[in-house]
Specification:
Elements (H helix, E strand, L loop, with lengths): L5 H19 L5 H15 L2 E9 L5 E7 L2 H7 L3 E2 L1 H9 L2 E3 L2 E4 L1 H4 L28 E7 L7 E10 L7 H36 L4 H13 L4 E6 L8 E4 L1 H7 L3 H4 L4 H4 L5 H10 L1 E8 L5 E13 L3 E11 L1 H15 L9 H10 L12 H9 L2 H6 L35 E10 L1 H8 L1 H17 L6 E6 L2 E9 L1 H15 L3 E3 L2 E3 L2 E9 L5 H18 L2 H4 L3
Antiparallel strand pairs: 1-2, 1-7, 2-3, 4-5, 5-6, 6-7, 8-9, 8-12, 10-11, 11-12, 13-15, 13-18, 14-15, 16-17
Helix pairs in contact: 1-2, 1-6, 1-12, 2-6, 6-7, 16-17
Length: about 550
């Protein structure tokens, strides 16, 4: 089973990776983009050294950026390694999907080739996955739209944890290399387009040549490009689109000229589009395809202006980011859900519970009329009802006009019909004996089946989470004391029936503790209360009724 802290580490890594990828899109030039690529690895991916080798027009690779060591940067930046030597390196060693790892035991044959390299002395590894100073890890970058057109190679060294990266670290490095390749390609494309636009404005005598250069860069760009009208009744209407954009949206150019991006954007993203169209810049949003589906794209607007007449049109660059968005959603789900059962994990449970709680205990106001009387009457009474002594102050977020919906624990001793957020803490009885007798494979199968049974017994808006081991938690809102007790009985009865694993029937029992979430409590306090009540309930039941196996 995964360590309880691992989801936090994964979530932190994903946030750092997301920030590093976001920084790639803020670079203003190709040189800035290359340096940002190297800096992002050191700042966000946990390596002390990073080097970006870029393919030159003649095919050889030049060290274009370095991060992590100023002495190494001064020594090898600008040096060139032959394409033959690089292809040799990428063809040897261990294949980690798109990555290439050459351990120090194999890399000694590369010490004398012409690829610029920097090594630091260090001790021999003490355990199998410890990083050696002469280990080499490469992340090839390929141009968008093709898997064999090498754009460059990222090389990294000295992981901060001293170990070779695991599956999670490799996936993060591979994804970062893919996004870096897109950023470098886009930086080159933007540089070419900007040069073309400058020529259109400043080189009046070479107008035809400039227009042809722009046309080719526009038409044959590997990503979508569009020119839209600015100002007037037709503001935003598409005047021209390239083939890549037509393929992306599944519509011919003649049809696209009837629309503006506002007609194609997802309704939830219209505000983002309007801000980007008015100010220029970059946005990530969804555009509609001909088949009715929506596609995630990165949309970058550049306002093309005439020195005499002001803004003339918008030049829009549209990049397909559907795969990256899907990957981000998958990573987010994996970071917040249990890998075995698919249920929300401990971190996600605490986040959902904390979202329902505030630091101030809820105080009930009898009626709005009484609260108003109190506000204009006795000062102490007005303050007791949440109003300031000098009148109304609805901007403080307190009192009867607080927009937060407070959670209140019902009176368990007297079921007066009040409802609250019930927290049911479940601990399986007899699960350890199943693990000991039949092995972890059977134990895992039992946990998966218990998760399924719990999920089928609750409402759509309720939460079933795995806290860890054989402990589960159910969050169910809008329940009274009797409702929560009935739910605990239904859940226990759903767990008790035999579970068949590999032709063998095993049984587990369940003990439930019912706690209540109330504002003024922390998520830890709520869970601790439910846990304590579960142990009280477990001790109160005879051992015979808790046996399983």
């Amino acid at each position: 089973m995964e360590a309880e802290s691992e989801p936090y580490v994964r979530l932190a890594t994903m946030r750092q990776l997301h920030q590093a990828v976001a920084d790639l899109n803020t670079a203003r030039s190709l040189a800035d983009t290359l340096q940002t690529v190297a800096d992002g690895i050191v700042a966000g991916l946990g390596y002390e050294l990073a080097c970006v080798n870029l393919v030159r027009p003649d095919g050889d690779l030049v060290v274009a950026a370095f991060a992590g060591n100023s002495a190494a940067e001064a020594l090898i930046t600008g040096r060139v390694g032959s394409r033959t030597s690089w292809e040799r390196r990428l063809a040897m060693g261990e294949i980690w999907d798109e990555l290439r790892f050459i351990p120090h035991t194999d890399g000694w044959v590369l010490l004398d080739d012409d690829v610029p390299q920097w090594h630091t002395e260090g001790p021999e590894p003490r355990f199998e996955d410890e990083w050696h100073p002469q280990d080499r890890l490469y992340a090839p970058m390929y141009a968008s739209g093709g898997g064999s057109d090498l754009l460059g190679v990222i090389s990294v060294d000295r992981p901060r944890n001293g170990r070779r990266p695991g599956a999670w670290g490799r996936e993060a490095l591979q994804m970062y290399a893919s996004q870096s390749a897109i950023a470098i390609s886009n930086a080159r494309l933007r540089a070419n387009m900007q040069r073309a636009l400058v020529r259109l404005e400043r080189e009046q005598q070479a107008l035809r040549a400039s227009e042809e250069s722009f046309r080719q860069a526009f038409e044959y760009a590997p990503s979508g490009m569009a020119i839209a009208e600015m100002g007037g009744d037709q503001h935003g209407r598409l005047l021209r689109t390239n083939d890549a954009l037509c393929r992306l949206l599944g519509r011919p150019a003649s049809v696209l000229r009837r629309y503006s991006f506002a007609d194609l954007v997802h309704p939830e993203d219209i505000g983002t589009l309007l801000r980007t169209s008015a100010e220029g810049g970059r946005a990530e949003l969804r555009l509609g395809r001909r088949d009715g589906t929506y596609l995630w794209v990165s949309l970058r607007n550049s306002v093309v202006a005439d020195t005499a007449d002001g803004p003339r049109f918008l030049l829009t660059h549209v990049e397909d980011i559907e795969e990256r968005k899907r990957h981000e959603l998958n990573l987010a789900h994996r970071a917040s859900h249990d890998a075995l059962t698919g249920l929300p994990n401990s971190a996600e449970l605490r986040a959902r519970l904390s979202a329902r709680l505030c630091e101030r205990p809820h105080s009930v106001v009898s009626t709005d009329v009484e609260a108003l009387d109190a506000a204009y009457g006795d000062v102490d009474e007005a303050r007791a009802h949440g109003f300031p002594a000098d009148g109304f102050d609805v901007g403080r977020g307190v009192g009867p006009y607080d927009h937060h919906v407070h959670s209140v624990a019902p009176d368990t001793g007297n079921d007066d019909g009040s409802k609250g957020l019930a927290v049911l803490f479940c601990d399986l009885d007899g699960f350890k004996s199943i693990n000991d007798r039949f092995g972890h494979h059977t134990g895992d199968a039992v946990l998966i089946e218990v998760a399924r049974r719990l999920t089928t017994c609750v409402r759509d808006g309720d939460t079933v989470a795995r806290l860890g081991g054989d402990e589960f938690v159910v969050l169910a809102d809008g329940l009274g004391s009797a409702d929560a007790a009935d739910l605990a009985v239904r859940l226990r009865n759903a767990i008790i029936p035999p579970i068949r694993v590999d032709g063998r029937a095993v049984r587990v029992g369940a003990s439930f503790g019912i706690g209540w979430a109330a504002c003024g409590m922390t998520a830890e306090e709520v869970l601790r209360s439910a846990d304590q009540r579960m142990y009280v309930e477990k001790r109160s039941r005879s051992k015979v009724h808790r046996r399983a196996g």
